[in-house]
Every structure is written in structure tokens, then in C-alpha cells.
């Protein structure tokens, strides 16, 4: 059913006339041209499509656009503020927490959500929190190190 | 990638095909450049001899580097410019790189085989060295100094006795190609003089990859572009009987293309195209072959192709006579998927004459030739560009999706994107082949290896050759790792990170440990006693030192594993510690140590990242990764049943790169994965005395092996 859906995307208001049952991932990637969230599996099994809805990581391949009406959606494109990288982004660069980079937006946003929930996670908590996000390049140890560094730098705050 | 700012005209200008201002040079007699590395064979024959194909120096003194290699996560984008900067004597940061664009870059066979540095790198360095020497000759004229008094640094030619006399490369070239060439290419810089190589320059793709700016093939948006979903058979070998596309036509904006058994549904939104495809009622004739993931090994052994001899020495029969103990075992491994996070994707546009295709591919030039041939276009009218590739591991050497997008874009004359679903990615993957290794070997009464009779079926040649001091040995290889569905395999198979070597090392090292056990020897000592090859001894000792290996005969109950091999010219040794849950058969990997000798290391951090990635990825084929199938139908079509390594699997990973500056750079993208099956198998054996004869070593197989032990 075509309906009007309003939400915020990376800080900017969006108003769409769209079939509310359409998948958030594809509305973001095609209708709105925001390609940071990636398709990896389409069934909520890999985390590549992760975005933030009100600062909580959600799998955009498992959400309809109607599900996020009136929410604040943040994709990887919206994480840096005023050209300043988020501590997680800086830490991923520093520790080389990526190789091919395809899972990276999902990894960073999942980590953001993890730290929002638990600002001082132990290594075991990071591993547990990130476990559903897949990386085929095998960059896991570096991603964990990056999240540890970012957590230290953020000192409990999100920025 | 920066390639988007270049166009064909500019490239032709660069290559001197069309006019472009001043052509530098006054002597065109020496075009042969006879001393340069010969271009030959499948990998090299079409590589240009003109160094201008590899580089251009701009008036701003920045250098554009052109390479047909692609960036798939391995870090080539960062390390390749180090090679150019070194031999051209320019600042690393002054080098821009253009990758994987068939209109702009010199021909390349593809990004595979850990060849970017060790093979392409030599051509590039020679090109840079020649360009620099020519620049010095040009400068000699302008600076009125004999060329042998000149030196180069940071993009300048200068006279060290009078440093004020200097000229920038950019002033010499003025952005044009350099017509002058040398007869004798200067020798490459010795490693003792390296300034740029050997340093861990940060990755060039970092900022784009953490901000979402990195563009993959599926991120390309063209005006009027449609997304295509293609009707797929339910099984390999299935034939389309009929397809009723009418129900899909009711969806607004749907376009359908039907050419024989090729049926595509296109829409401006991919999810709507998918819905349209679901409306199509298709009927297929499905094959009944009776071949599944259990019967496949018998099937393969029955169909055995003619063998090739990888290596032999002595006389097996004589060896058998000298043996007091004979050990004969058979090893199996299953089909394994590449499963890159980015499924195969391509975006294509056709302007009525020329096709441009952005594709996630490891082989842009091969894809270009393939598309031109299949779509009846001249190769000049096909341009393939590989933007960032989201993982490949050999699987994107096959690029069927590029042809699909190209064919549709040409047919409907609108831009088209084909992005495979995860199910399509699994279905059309060219798997690492299922394989069988039969080893018969013997020990003499003093515990030395008397003979080694090695037969590998379907895994392939790479890594099959043993490197120990064994008087009587033969390694026979039946079948290769590449092939289409047919007599042997029910679906296509192809290169999977270090093809063949993973299987060969697994079988060889587990077998060696069974022999060491029979000899009552420590597995490391057993290997060292049979080795003369210094590089192998060095990596084993380096790994042992890092690991803290204490000699004990196996099984020791400690869960220590060991494996080693040679891949892409690199020597690599592995050690691991595991804990086996005897009740469940679950294996917990505590630590993995990997030591490698890869000759000169161009970018140590990049090399280390690749090693860690190899080790982590290798845990997958060791423990879980296995394709289940029957009658051509693939049952594992997503990550629910096909399990990739996860954060919670992480062992402590330690890597060592040995210093070996006298050896040219060797491969770095693959070697550190080859021993992962072997090191885990030997560790399980050491822990519980159970040899697991099939990869992956699932809890059920570990338990079954414990029952047998």
C-alpha cells in the first residue's frame, strides 16, 4: 500500500511516498541512493546491511520502511559529524579493521550500538556482541582491537 | 577509484595513439628494449613493453600508476605504488593509482595466484626504472651535465655536485608520454637501497571504507538504470521446459526479457524485480544423477582422469622393500564455497556502440574479451572496470554476472544492474573441488621415511610436491582444480585461495604425524630430520620459537598441531593448540602461530593483515565449510547452514615474517591459509589420538574419529 512515511536519515528529514511493506535496505540503497548499507545475505544472517534506528543496530534487510517511520536512521554515511570522523572510524583505520571493506559499514554501526549499550565492554563482551556480523576476509582480531581502542577514546560517550 | 576521471581519449593520448602536444624524445631507434623481462605465456604475453603503459608523470609532478590488478581487500592499491615510487625515485604520496580499467590500464591476466607483487611488480619496477633512466638523459641535455653526474630524488633530476642544478620530472615530460626508450633496462634497485619498499604505508582505501564512500559495483547508480533478476534453475543440469511470465507483467514498471531459457525481470527497484521474478511460473526438467555429497567420492574415483607426475625420485618398489612399517591412509575434503561478503555484481550501460561494465571481478581483461566474443562486439567497444571488489578469494575469476548485465544493457539499451542474491552466489560459485588423497608411505627400522607414494585426486597440482629428504617418492596428480560441470563434478569448480594447496598440506601433514607417531618421534623433530631446505627449516624453527614448542611424541594430549608448505614462492609453517571436547567433538582453537618467509616484504602491515586473514578464513574449511547437494541441487544457499568463521571462534593469532632481503618479493595473499586444515588435524590428533580423515572436521566427524581411535 502506498503511504507517506517520514523519518530522519542521517540527521535530515525524509518524506517518502512508498509502499510501506518495501524493505528498508532497498529503499535506502535505491530510492534514496544511500549505498553504505550493503546487501550480504538478505535474511538477517550477516550484518552487512546494519543501520542504526534511534542509535540501536538493526538489520535493514529485515525491516520494512514502515517499521522505521518516525525513527532516526543513521547509516555509515551519517556517522562522521561535520567532517570529523567518529572514534570508531578512526580506530578502524588505525587498526586496519577492514580489508575488502564490504562488511565494514555494518561492523562499525554494530559496534556503535554495542558501545551505546555498554560503553566499557570487556573483550569477551565485544566478541559476543559482534558475533552475528560476518567478515570473510578474516579481519576479526583487528576489528576487536579497533572497538577496544574506540571504547577507550569515547570514555562512555558516543562521540 | 580514480579511474572515473579518465576517459578513453585521454588514455589514447597517453599512449600516443592520437596527438597530444609535444612528444618527448629524440631517439626512437631503441624501441625493442631487449633486456627487459620477457613477456611470455598465459600471464605475461600481452603485457605491454612500452613503459608509458604503466605510468604517466603529470606537469604537477604527480605520477599516475596504471595497473590491471584490482583491489579486493588484499591491499594491492597500497603496496603496488610502493614499487613504482621506489624505482622511479618519487615520493610515495606523489603516486596515484588507477586499477582494473581495461581502457586505461595495461593488459593483465587477472588478480590471482599472489602474483601482483611477485610477477606484475617486476614489470612495473622495470618500467619505472627505464622511465627514470630516460628522464635522466633528457635532464642531462637541459642541465648541461653529463648523465653519469646526475642523480634522482623525490621526482627531481639533479646534479649532486651542484644541487641547484635540478629539474622536476614534470617539467621534462610536460604531461606527455615519453617517446624515448632504452635498449638496456637498468637493473632493479638492490634491496639494501630500498626507501619505500619495506615500510607499512597506511592503506589508501581506509577513509573511503570507513565512511561508506567506497564504491562497489552494486553502488553505481546510473540515470534510468534497471535492476535485473534472472530466472534460475533449481539444480545444475536442470532444463527449462516452460515459463509463464504473464503474472509478472501486472506489476507496474516491470520489464521482461526472454531469450530462450534466459528470462530476466527488470525494474527500477531490485526488490520489486524480485517480486516479479517470484510471479513467474517455471517448469524445469531436473536431472537424477544420484550423486550427492556422500556418494561424490566414489563417483570421482570411478571417473578418475589421467594423472600427471608432480615429482618423483628413487624407486617406490625399492622403497617399499626397505620399509619395516607401512602406513596407508585416504584423506577427503568436501566442496567449499568462496562466499565473499559481496555477491557477484555488475552494472552495465550501452550507448549504442560501446558497452561499459563495472563488475566485481578479479579478471577485467578476460571479462572484456569474453563479453566482446559473446555479444559480437569488437574488443574496442567493451570497457570493463573493476571498482572495489568486496572479497573474491578466487571466486571472482569467474564473472558470469558481468555477461548477464552486459547482455541485458545491450538488449534493452538502458543501464542494468545484476546483483546476485546470496542464493545465486552459492549456486553459481565455482567451488573448491571435493578431493581425495591416497598416501602410502613407509618407515625404515631407524624411523626414517623410506618411501612416499602420494596420489591426489581432483584437488590439483599446487603444493602436491613433497620437499623432504625421502629416497623413494612419487607424487601423482589426477585432475585439476578448474572445470565445468560434467563428467567429474556436478557443478563448476575453480580456484579457491591457494588452490590445491590446502588439501595437499592437510593430507601430507596429518599423514606425517601418523608416521611420526609410529616412529615414536616428536612431529617437529621428525620433519626437521627429513629436511635440508633451509627456508623450510627456518620457518619451522621460527614458528616453534614463537609457539614455545616442546618436543614430545604425538599424541601427547597437549593438542599441539603442526603443518608447513610452500605456496606462491613463500615458505610457511603453522603451529596450533586446540582443546577437544570429548563428549561433543567440539574443538576449541586456543592459539595459532604462523611463520612465513616471503622474501622482500613490501608492506609489512599489509602482509601481516593478509596472514591473519588467511588464518581466520582457514578455520572455516577446517571446521564447518562444506557444500551439501544432491542431483545438482545445492542445499547450502545462505549462512544459516553454511557457517563462516565468527568472532567467537577467534584463537590467539601470532604471525612472524622472516627477514630474507636477498630474495625478491614472493606471494602474500594465499600462503598463510594452506596449513589451516593440516595444523588443526594434527592438533586434534595430538589431543585425543584421533585422525580425522575428512575436511571439514565437524564435531560429528571428530567424534567418529575418536570412536575409531
Proportion of helical residues of chain B = 25-40%
Distance between the amino and carboxyl termini of chain A: 39 Å
Uncertain segments of chain A are none
Strand content of chain B: 15-25%
Largest sheet, spatial ordering of strands of chain A: 2-1-5-3-4
User: Mind telling me the C-alpha Rg of chain A?
Assistant: 15 Å
Number of helices of chain B: 18
Q: What can you see in these coordinates?
A:
The complex is a heterodimer of chains A (159) and B (709). Chain A is an alpha+beta fold. Chain A contains five helices and five strands, in the order E-E-H-E-E-E-H-H-H-H. Chain A has a five-stranded mixed β-sheet with strand order 2-1-5-3-4, covered by helices on one side. In chain A, strand 1 (2-9) and strand 2 form a beta hairpin. In chain A, helix 2 crosses helix 5. The mean pLDDT of chain A is 96. Chain B is an alpha+beta fold and 709 residues long. In chain B, 28% of the residues lie in helices and 22% in strands. Chain B starts with 7 loop residues before the first helix and ends with a helix. Chains A and B meet through helix 1, helix 2, helix 3, helix 4 and helix 5 of A and helix 6, helix 7 and helix 16 of B.
